[in-house]
């Protein structure tokens, strides 16, 4: 027996085409970014006060290792980024010789040599004189604060060990009236790797800072799950997926950085459910051990749906062949 009208389909580039003029796009598999876990021994926070200014800037710092703090005012943006990509040995030499960013800042600020400690509030102020930051877009950062790990001579660190946290701070002024805030934070590892720390945005709208998890924006396109000994998302009060409201959220979407969905719902989406931007990649912010239960449920419902679809296809084909429609 041969059917009169056979449905023929084939793949053409990125599209799945069926006999006739209908074209149905094939959903592309969204790639997962590679993960690595990095321990951060430092924390750095600005005090959220309306009085933060060049004459009174307060921050809170903690460290699990001995370190050197060096602050610089009016730092050349170009020269800072050039220096950040240098080897870890260059950082060590610059701190030892007191030549860190020499010639590329307008005022040298606070310098401290500290042992490990819990959170401590530090007050900073710019020495006498004004900064020439240039007209927007500016060519200098108002303030850059280095937290550099102190290591004994001839000591060996693991290549993935964190050796420096570099904090770029914007300070509100008459030209740029944005509130005082941390513009950027850079993580330096002993192997020379440089990562730009970014916030993740939870479904509640709250920001998840690097103290819990963060992603890197480096050339190798790796996601870095950063750990400073604090809590994780896997708690008794963990948030649920905004789509199904059943499984815990476990995936951070890129490039928008919204952390709002579970692995089960992820495969059904092409855009972020929070901001509707296209999903280009993702990484996991917690384990997904719940997937076993999810797969079992999908297997049961999927098998039933396939049987129904096949039965309906047979019925429609026979009806069309006999001309009964």
List the helices and strands and how they pair.
Layout lengths: L8 E4 L2 E4 L4 E3 L8 E6 L2 E5 L10 E7 L3 E10 H8 L3 H9 L10 E8 L2 E8 L15 E10 L12 E9 L10 E9 L4 E3 L3 E3 L4 E2 L13 E6 L23 E4 L3 E4 L1 H4 L14 E4 L6 H32 L3
Describe the model.
With 325 residues, this protein is an alpha+beta fold. It is built from four helices and 19 strands. It has helices spanning 77-84, 88-96, 263-266, 291-322, and strands at 9-12, 15-18, 23-25, 34-39, 42-46, 57-63, 67-76, 107-114, 117-124, 140-149, 162-170, 181-189, 194-196, 200-202, 207-208, 222-227, 251-254, 258-261, 281-284. The strands form five sheets. It has a six-stranded antiparallel beta sheet with strand order 8-7-10-11-12-13. The protein is elongated, with a radius of gyration of 27 Å. The two termini are 19 Å apart.
Features:
325 residues; alpha+beta; five-stranded mixed beta sheet; disordered N terminus; six-stranded antiparallel beta sheet
Please summarize the sheet with the most strands.
6 strands, antiparallel
Poorly predicted regions: 1-20, 209-223, 229-236
Helix proportion: 10-25%
Radius of gyration: 27 Å
Side-by-side strand order of the widest sheet: 8-7-10-11-12-13
Sequence of secondary-structure elements: EEEEEEEHHEEEEEEEEEEEHEH
Whole-number mean pLDDT: 78
The helix-and-strand class reads alpha+beta
Q: Regarding quaternary structure, how should these chains be classified?
A: single chain
| Global outline | elongated
């Amino acid at each position: 027996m041969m059917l009169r009208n056979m449905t023929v389909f084939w793949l053409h580039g990125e599209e799945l085409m069926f006999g006739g003029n209908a074209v149905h796009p094939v959903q592309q598999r969204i790639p997962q970014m590679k993960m690595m876990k990095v321990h951060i021994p430092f924390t750095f926070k600005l005090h959220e006060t309306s009085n933060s200014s060049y004459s009174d800037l307060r921050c809170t710092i903690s460290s699990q290792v001995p370190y050197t703090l060096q602050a610089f005012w009016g730092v050349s943006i170009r020269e800072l980024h050039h220096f950040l990509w240098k080897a870890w040995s260059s950082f060590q030499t610059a701190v030892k010789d007191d030549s860190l960013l020499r010639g590329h800042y307008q005022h040298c600020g606070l310098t401290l040599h500290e042992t490990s400690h819990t959170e401590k509030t530090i007050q900073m102020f710019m020495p006498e004189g004004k900064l020439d930051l240039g007209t927007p877009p500016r060519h200098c950062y108002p303030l850059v604060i280095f937290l550099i790990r102190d290591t004994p001579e001839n000591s060996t660190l693991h290549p993935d060990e964190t050796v420096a946290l570099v904090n770029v701070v914007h300070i509100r002024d008459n030209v740029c009236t944005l509130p005082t805030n941390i513009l950027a934070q850079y993580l330096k590892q002993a192997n020379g790797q440089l990562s730009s720390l970014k916030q993740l945005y939870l479904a509640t709208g709250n920001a998840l800072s690097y103290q819990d998890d963060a992603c890197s924006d480096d050339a190798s396109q790796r996601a870095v799950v950063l750990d400073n000994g604090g809590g994780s998302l896997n708690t008794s009060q963990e948030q649920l997926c905004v789509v199904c409201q059943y499984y815990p959220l476990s995936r951070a979407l890129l490039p928008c950085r919204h952390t709002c969905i579970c692995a089960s719902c992820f495969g059904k989406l092409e855009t972020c459910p929070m901001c509707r931007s296209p999903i280009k990649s993702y990484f996991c912010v917690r384990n997904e051990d719940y997937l076993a239960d999810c797969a079992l449920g999908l297997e049961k419902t999927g098998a039933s749906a396939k049987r129904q679809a096949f039965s309906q296809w047979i019925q429609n084909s026979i009806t069309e062949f006999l001309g009964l429609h």
